[in-house]
Amino acid sequence: MKARKRTLSALLILCLAAVVGLTACGSSKTADNTEGRGTKSGQKVTVNFGFWGTAQDLAIYQDAADKINTVYPDIELKIKQYPSSEQFWNTLPGEIAAGVAPDFIKMSNEGAYEYINKNLFAPIDDLIQSTGIDMSRFPESSKNIWNVDGKMYGIPNTDMPAMFLINEKMWKDAGLGAYPTTWDEVIQAAKVLNKGDVKGIIVNLDAFHITNYVKSFGGGWGYGKTINSPENVKALELIIDMYKEGIAVTPKSLGFGWDGEVFSNQKGAMSTGGYWYKGYLKDANPDLKYVALPIPKGTTNGSTMSSDAYIVLKDAKNKEAALKAAYYMTNDETQKAFMDLGFNPALTSLSGQYFEKNPEFSALKPALEYSTDFEYPTDTKRFTDALVQELEALILGGSGKTAQQILDDIQSQFN
To answer: Cα separation of 276 and 54, whole Å?
Structure first.
């Protein structure tokens, strides 16, 4: 929540997370079809799980923990809910360094590569064998996202392409017709929707959103090799031009933390985003009607694929127990509950039901075929910080740099 999303600061923020202790006690089978195993000593093991998400997400995890007692009698599960994605990403490195991080976390592929490269996550290949969990439940495409250099680093949880969201009432009230499929059409609509204190489009100056503009022009970061490509320059020029025309707004300028807050408060009519909007809007503005579409085309169809997984940290106190608890979170009942919130489960047995349960996302079907990974440089945090800082310096601070200059400067730091 995806949401997705993140401005990473250099400072480590003290965790304000709420800790909820959930006890697991009971008997014999894992997620759906494997045998549970106790610890060798027979004593209970405390496993800490960390995630950021909505109150509805937490409720589902609590329900899962209530029912895990029929599977692992030897595990006590404690859940740490981080207040926001920003605090999750800013706090986790410091917690890992201090040895107080959770044993396993839910993380997206957007930020995982740096942690994997720095050996902060535990490869789970041997753990899969020792715990007997069944990885055949997950499609190869989902597992491949979390396989780096021949090693598996996560139990797949969800897969879903980025979206373009439109306030349906605003669109209809403005007398606009067919929904846009290109950025040119978006700009024309934004000019009509730009009224009073409502901006035509929310452009969150955040790496997730910027990357989706980049991919729609056939660009990408190339893991740091193609930061200043012509395609990427065109994408940034589009963003800059929308701000120059006065039709775009970033959450920071309105005092909001992320684009979903701007959208739910109806201060912007359109935004890039993701499936996490569904769960968030159920709480924040349940009466708001929206339309979800693929990311509009710049020169090609392109967008990011967000994949969440449960990941065991390298310094987890009991890695086998952590992996068992992580795997249990992928049981069918829990995944169906998340499906109702808009999550597309990375389970072969359930993926076919997703669009039946979430018809509002049916337009996203084609994007499942062409959406790709984020391709951030290995030093992901330094890259995303630089990208956001440069754009904020231009849009909010008036630095005067061009898109080419911004990307050339960042590229020079990653050569």
So the answer is: 9
The first and second tokens of residue 403, run together, are 């898109």
- What is each CA distance from 43 to 26, 73, 95, 321, in whole angstroms? 13, 9, 26, 12
Query: Residue 78 CB: number of other CB atoms within 10 A?
Result: 17
- Can you say how many angstroms the Cα of residue 91 is from the centroid of all Cα atoms in its chain? 17
Tokens of 410: 């960042």
Angle at Cα 351 formed by Cα 350 and Cα 356, nearest 5°?
A: 90
Token pair recorded at residue 344: 């597309």
Q: What is the pTM of this model?
A: 0.78
The Cβ-side half-sphere exposure at 371, using a 13 Å CA radius, reads 26
CA 409, 233, 86: angle at the middle one, nearest 5? 70
Determine contact, residues 288/281, Cβ cutoff 8 Å. yes
Could you give the CA distance from residue 346 to residue 146 in angstroms, rounded to a whole number? 12
> In sequence order, what are the beta bridge partners of 77?
22, 47
Residues 6 or more apart from 200 whose CB is under 8 A from it? 189, 190, 191, 192, 193, 194, 247, 248, 268, 269, 270
DSSP category for residue 217: T
What separation in angstroms does the CA of 90 have from each of 153, 254, 386? 21, 22, 15
Q: What are phi and psi of 223, to 5 degrees?
A: 55, 30
Q: Structure tokens of 338?
A: 């998340």
User: For residue 131, which of 37, 255, 42 has the smallest C-alpha distance?
Assistant: 37
Token pair of 89 as six digits = 């990403």
pLDDT digits (tens, 9 = 90+) for 209-254: 999 999 999 999 999 999 999 999 999 999 999 999 999 999 999 9
